[in-house]
Amino acid sequence: MVLVEQEDRVRRFPLESGKYIELHNEDCLTGLDSFADCSFDVVVTSPPYNLGVQYGNYDDTIPRDQYLDWLEEVVTKIKRKMKDDSSFFLNVGSKPTDPWGPFEIAVRLRNHFELQNTIHWIKSIYIENESYGETKAINVGHYKPINGTRFLNDSHEYIFHLTKTGNVPLNRLAIGVPYKDDHNTTRWKNGHTGARCRGNTWYIPYKTIQSRDRQRPHPATFPVELAEMCVKLHGIRDDTLVLDPFMGIGHTSLACAKLGVSSVGFEIDQSYFETNCQILDSYTSGELSALIQSDSNSS
């Protein structure tokens, strides 16, 4: 596959499926004006969290009210560009000394969307379980240890599933998990599929890396698998179009490339934009770099 440059700030990557990934080095607030209303089927994104993260070209320390006003302006425009049966998966996090951010965002966006589902992205977990007379323990994932005695290690983030109506049907079994007991396949309506709904707790660890600067050159990314699961959960049609207005280094765009789904992304930082282009160039040429290799055990 060949990288096609339409202009310096817009790049399009054709996929083998006949779909495309289109990347814009532009603020989504202005860039989205070039798209008709009701254009997008799925939105998957993670905006700045307003927690003082050191991004390249964005000040993540603006006053909270100013941040919420700005995010509401962005979300209002996104809503206009979404179809009536679209899904908006909004990943937001917090930190122990500033825990209210996700809830303040949810309350502000209540003026515009229905909160159809709240998904918990689990990055690390320890489970000890006794089942069938046998005790098993598992300790998996990655976390950043917190020193001191006040706070627990922070091992999760939120994914708010927002829709216009609250009644958007989902393809729950597209990301289903096996039944623990095979007898359940005959007890339940969808048992013949061999899978059940995963629920709203998703364990998706970060891939182990050796060099942050080389393999994950962005201070706040979500795994490619997270974006894949969101798109699959909403459901994929032949004409599905996905939007990520805060693209970063492009894990949503890579997820869509892997799924063979068309996607549009916006990123104001040229360095992150160029990294995304390099990742997609590597993927479409069949030379996927270590930067975005998936951990096949993560989902």
Descriptive notes:
The chain is of the alpha/beta class and 299 residues long. The protein has a domain at 35-241: Rossmann fold, CATH 3.40.50. 23% of the residues lie in helices and 27% in strands. It contains seven helices and 14 strands. The chain has helices at 28-31, 64-81, 101-109, 212-215, 224-234, 251-259, 270-284; strands at residues 4-7, 10-14, 20-24, 40-45, 82-92, 114-122, 124-131, 134-141, 156-163, 177-178, 195-196, 201-203, 241-244, 262-266. The strands form three sheets. Strands 1-2-3-14-13-4-5-9-6-12 form a ten-stranded mixed beta sheet, with helices on both faces. α2 (64-81) links the parallel β4 and β5. α2 packs across α3, α5 crosses α6 and α6 packs parallel to α7. The protein is globular and about 60 Å long. 32% of the residues are buried. The model is unreliable at 1-6, 215-220 and 289-299 (pLDDT under 50).
What's a quick, concise take on this entry?
The protein is of the alpha/beta class. It contains seven helices and 14 strands.
CATH architecture designation of the domain at 35-241:
3-Layer(aba) Sandwich
**What is the spatial order of strands in the main beta sheet?**
1-2-3-14-13-4-5-9-6-12
Continuous helix count: 7
Main sheet, how many strands, which sense, barrel?
Answer: 10 strands, mixed
Report, as a whole number of angstroms, the end-to-end distance.
28 Å
Any idea what the CATH superfamily of the domain at 35-241 is called?
Vaccinia Virus protein VP39
- Report the CATH topology name of the domain at 35-241: Rossmann fold
Radius of gyration (CA) equals 20 Å
Helical residues, percent: 10-25%
Unreliable segments of 5+ consecutive residues: 1-6, 215-220, 289-299
* Inertia-based shape: globular
Output mean pLDDT: 86
Strand fraction: 25-35%
Task: Find the count of extended strands (DSSP E, 2+ residues).
Answer: 14
CATH class of the domain at 35-241, please?
Answer: Alpha Beta
> Strand-and-helix sequence, N→C?
EEEHEHEHEEEEEEEHHEHEH
Question: Which class of secondary structure composition applies to the elements?
Answer: alpha/beta
